[in-house]
Amino acid sequence: MKAVVGELARFGGTPEFRTPLRLGRPNIGDRARFFARLGGALDRGWLSNGGPLVAEFEDRVARITGARHCVATCNATLALQLAIRAAGWRGEVIVPALTFAATAHAVAWLGLTPVFCDVDPVTGGLDPGHAATLIGPRTSGILGVHLWGRGHRLDELTELAHRHGIGLLFDAAHAFACSWRGRPIGSFGAAEVFSFHSTKFVHAFEGGALVTDDDALAERARSLRNFGLTGPDEVAQVGVNAKMSEASAAMGLTSVDSLEEFRAHNAHNHARYTAGLAAAPGIRLLAFDPAEDNNFQYVVAEVDETVTGLGRDTLHEVLLAENVLARRYFHPGCHLMAPYRDGTRLPHTEALAARSLALPTGTAVGAEQIDRLCRLLRFAARNGRAIQDRIGAEPVIARAS
Ligand code: T4K
Question: At the top level of CATH, which class does the domain 259-400 belong to?
Fold first, then answer.
C-alpha cells in the first residue's frame, strides 16, 4: 500500500506486484478433457482437414451463436478475409478506426481500401450517421466491430446497408456468447467473425470462425478456407489455407465446455473493479448492459485527465512500473497507423483511444489482485497532479530511460 507518491515504483519504490499482472492470460479449462481429446486425435491419426473435432467445434459454435453455418479457421484475421471474399466485395469497405489493426488489415491484405469511420463518443460503436457520409460509388460494404463485445445501433447499420444496396459484415472477435437486444451476436449482417486467440475468453490457442445463415456464402467460405478446392482435384477459385487444426479444436471444445464458468468469473471480476473504482476520481469503467449476454472479456477504464490531473499515458507508465501490464487498446486508432495514415482525423475515435486503458481480467486474475490494483488506481487518481508534476520536473534524460 502506497502512502506517498514517492513510494510508487515509477519513482523508485517497490513494485506492487512481484510477478507481472498481465492482461490476456489464457483461460485454461479442464486439462484432462483437453488431453483426452488430443489423445483421440493422435490415435485416429487425423490432425487437420475435415477432422471430427473441428466438425464438433463448428457445431457447438453454430448452436451458441444461433447461426446455421460455422466455418472454423486458424484465426479471425483469415476468417475476416474469407468473409469479405465470399461476400464478393471489391473497392472500398467502411470500417471503424477504433479497433485492433486486424480489422483494417483483413481488408487491405485483399487489395481493398479500408475507409475509416468515426465512432459513438460514449460507446465506441461505429457511428451509422458518419458511415452514411462515407458511402460512395466504390463502396462494397460496411465491416462493423462489436467493440469490447457490445453491439451498437445494429438495426440502423442494417437499415443503412440495405438502403444503399451494400453489404454488411461484422468483426465479432470480442463478442463470442454475447447478445444485442436479446439476439445472439453471430446473427447480424451477412456473416460475423469470432476470434478464438489465446487471449480471448474462449480460445483454441489460435483460432477463428465465420458464422452465417447464408448457405452459398458458407459454401464459398469453406472452399476458400481450403485452397479453393471443391473436390479432390478440383480448384474452383483462388483460395488460401485457413483451416483450423484438430489440436486447436480440442482446445476450443474444452474452452467451450467451461464457457459459463469463464463468463461468471469475468462477471465477478468486472463487478469487483466497478466497486473498487467507484471512488477513483476521473476513472470510469466501461459498463455492460445487464439485460444482454456479456462475456466481460475486457475491463476497460477511461481516464479523464481534467479530473485526475493525470493523463492515461502517465497512468499506464505508473502501472507498468508496478508490474501491471495494462494495454492501451486501441491506441491510436487504425487511421493514424503507418500503413493507413492519410490525414484523416476522427475526433471521437481519437478521444476514446487517448483515454482508454484495458486492465487485467480472466480466470488468472482474482479478487485479491483486483483489490490491490484498484487501491493503486485510487491512489494514483487522487494524487494525479502530484504524480504528473513530479514526472514533469524530472530531467528529460531520466524520463526517457
Ligand atoms: N478483430 C479484432 C477486433 C481483434 O481484437 C482481433 C484480435 C482480431 C480481429 C484478430 O483476431 P485473431 O486473428 O488474433 O484471431 C492481441 C491478440 O493477438 C489479438 O488476437 C487480439 N485481437 C488483440 C486485441 O490482442 P496483442 O499483440 O496485443 O497481444 P499479445 O500477444 O501481446 O498478448 C497480450 C497479453 O497476453 C500479453 O500480456 C501476454 C499475454 N499472453 C498472451 C498469449 C498469446 C499470455 O499470457 N499468454 C499467451 O498465450 O494482440
Answer: alpha beta
